[in-house]
Amino acid sequence: MRLMPLMTKAFSILLLLLGVASAAAASPSLVLNEDDIGALREASGGLLETSLQANKIVADEAIAAGIVVPWPKDAGGGYTHEQHKRNYKAMYAAALQYQISGDTRYSHYVAEMLSAYADMYPQLDLHPEKKEQTPGKLFWQSLNEAVWLVYTSQAYDMVAETFSDELRDRLKNNLLFPVADYLSKGQPQTFDKIHNHGTWAVAAVGMVGYATGRDDYVEQALKGLDRRGNSGFYKQLDELFSPDGYYTEGPYYQRYALMPFVWFAKAIETNEPDKAIFKYRDGILLKAIYTTLELSYNGLFLPINDAIKDKGIKTEELVQALAIAYDITADKSLSDIARQQERVSLSAGGVALSKIIAEGEVVPYNYPSKVYRDGADGEQGALTLLRSGDNESGTLVVAKNTSQGMGHGHYDRLSWQFYDDGHEVVTDYGAARYLNVEAKYGGHYLTENKTWAKQTVAHNTLVVDKASQFDTDLDKANKNPAEQVAFIQDNVADISIGRINTAYEGVQLTRIQALVKPKSIEPFVIDVVSIESDTQHLYDLPLHFNGQVIDHNLENSESFNIWKPLGKSNGYQHMLLRSEGNSATTNNRLTWLMGDRFYSYTYGYQAESAKQANTLFFQLGANDPNHNLRRDQGVVRRLKADSAVMYAVLEPHGEYNGTAEYVRNSYSRVNSLDYKPTKTGAELTVDMGQGLTYTLILTKGDENSSLVKAKVIELSEN
User: Residue ranges of the Alginate lyase domain (predicted)?
Assistant: First the structure.
């Protein structure tokens, strides 16, 4: 392993002679400013004290370890990659510790680390494990290099006033400017891209500009390399967020992109408050912060598109964004999120949030049923959340009627997820990737991300003729979003209606999902998939679920000693057929146990011309020699028809207590489902027994036969 030489005692003395410790700490001028530092110096106790101590530990441990700057060698997750990540976080922590304490040990450390990088960077060629499209020098991809510069520019800003003119010039000319130039002029295809990689790049270059007085860098960051406004930070704010603050790649990447957006915006606000950046586009950045919070359940982000499922609201990006949002809004309900994060940003906003929590004045955050429009103009579908109860143990239906989500998008228009009792019950696979686990394909997205996770059958939406939507043609998918037809709320139910007629040629799909909220029993879901086609197709409707199957009522059920794949491509090659049974026209039922609650899925279909309907039980694991896939399970409802309706009710019920050894209400409440066409549309009546009957009334639109209106009627309730 080639390492840059550790700083010698003689070099440390040289730094002192150059003036490293001669100046008093000046206020920083990027994300943190005079108000932030003043608040941090005066405050103590609560989560703030915990966060201050954590920062000091990072800085002290880094100083004890010395200056370790390895020659770049490894891809993501490897030693050199992780060491350079530790270094930028350590520089940031030490610089902040210097601002708070005035202890010159911390400014010396930052000076020595920056000097080591300034010695090395001019010698670097492209990284040996470089990604073909976006190579870095310190890291395998330039994205990581941009993140490094976002942190490093702030560390420099917090201690630069302690440097001599000679040292400042060397660090700027040998390090900060070369990295900024490489990320901008050196990679225009990334810098000018409307994408989270571009956001990190423009934030990094713009922050270097503010920290060093380079107005040209700031202009490039704001308006693109040609400074005409066709790219750059403003254009990214215009195009990457919908009017509701939804980021088109989904909440996992919204969380990741949030850091450069809010940090660079705060730097703009500090240096050029007249730009009023947080008011830009009707306060789009604040909307984005709130939307990121709300696209979560029980602390974890909803796994939309290429999402890694263990990311949640405790991430550093959201800790920082929360404090900035509070600084602007003084919204006390944000303290509820900070309480759950169990730490606060080291900033004035973090100090204020810590004080609210310490004084017992936390206001609960309200998670609403809501439509989050997709697309810059809000006309590319929507992600719709239907909620009942709180966000930790209540009920949540996620209806994904969105756009593709660019390259990180999945082919899953009109899919859904269901959360209840603190668990993900009807599941989405998320991404097939083990981030930074070098043994799993170097931490890259796995091959199975394309062959399984992105395929339509990997999601809870209709598959036509065992093919994925748009034949997995990304360009075509990007041009054809789903449509959010309607969102209806009343005291009985919240309802989402989505539609798409471009995913499969000659097939129009409409999905109506209602979260019904009775007074005396648990909320339940009505799900109706309406299929319109002039020709016969094979329709598969998967349901991926967590839990242990309890029972089912399928006819002629057969299990198999030898499990075989369900197909050869489009995700089917990974699905092992465990058993199957014939489905009746209506009142088929599957019950499973998840946690301490039972879930029953009662379903049927309506079609004038249809062959035998079947239900197939599957488990993942076929054609997976490297054991990359989780052993998830589900069922596929299969029907061959032209136009058809596939309907269902999903109900939580009962309780299982293994400790006290009792079971309550383990059987489904649904007595029957009755679906019938009417002159104006259709009706689905759900008989829940004990005098509880609900009817979903569907009404056709005026222009065509698509169902565009819906209402749930509570016919009776004892």
Answer: 67-276
Q: What is the pLDDT of residues 551-569, one digit of tens each?
A: 999 999 999 999 999 999 9
Cβ neighbours around 377 below 10 Å, total: 11
Are the C-beta atoms of 152 and 171 separated by less than 8 Å? Answer: no
> Of 212, 235, 258, which residue sits at a domain end?
235
For the stretch 357-375, pLDDT in tens is 999 999 999 999 999 999 9
Q: What is the pTM of this model?
A: 0.94
Q: Show the tokens assigned to 93.
A: 């922590």
Q: Is 195 a catalytic residue?
A: no
Per annotation, catalytic residue among 408, 423, 537, 653? 408
Concerning whether 253 is annotated as a catalytic residue, the answer is yes
Name the residue among 87, 91, 78 with its Cα closest to residue 1: 78
Give the three-class secondary structure for 229. Answer: coil
Range of the domain at 117: 1-235
Last residue of a domain, one of 210, 235, 260: 235
Q: Which of 638, 620, 622 is nearest to 630 (CA)?
A: 620
Cα separations (Å) of 10 from 164, 542, 703? 17, 68, 83
> What are the pLDDT digits (tens) for 6-22?
443 334 434 443 444 43
Active-site residue, selected from the candidate residues 210, 253, 367, 605: 253
What size, in residues, is the chain? 718
Rounded Cα gap, residues 513 and 529, in angstroms? 9
Query: Is residue 318 assigned to a domain?
Result: no
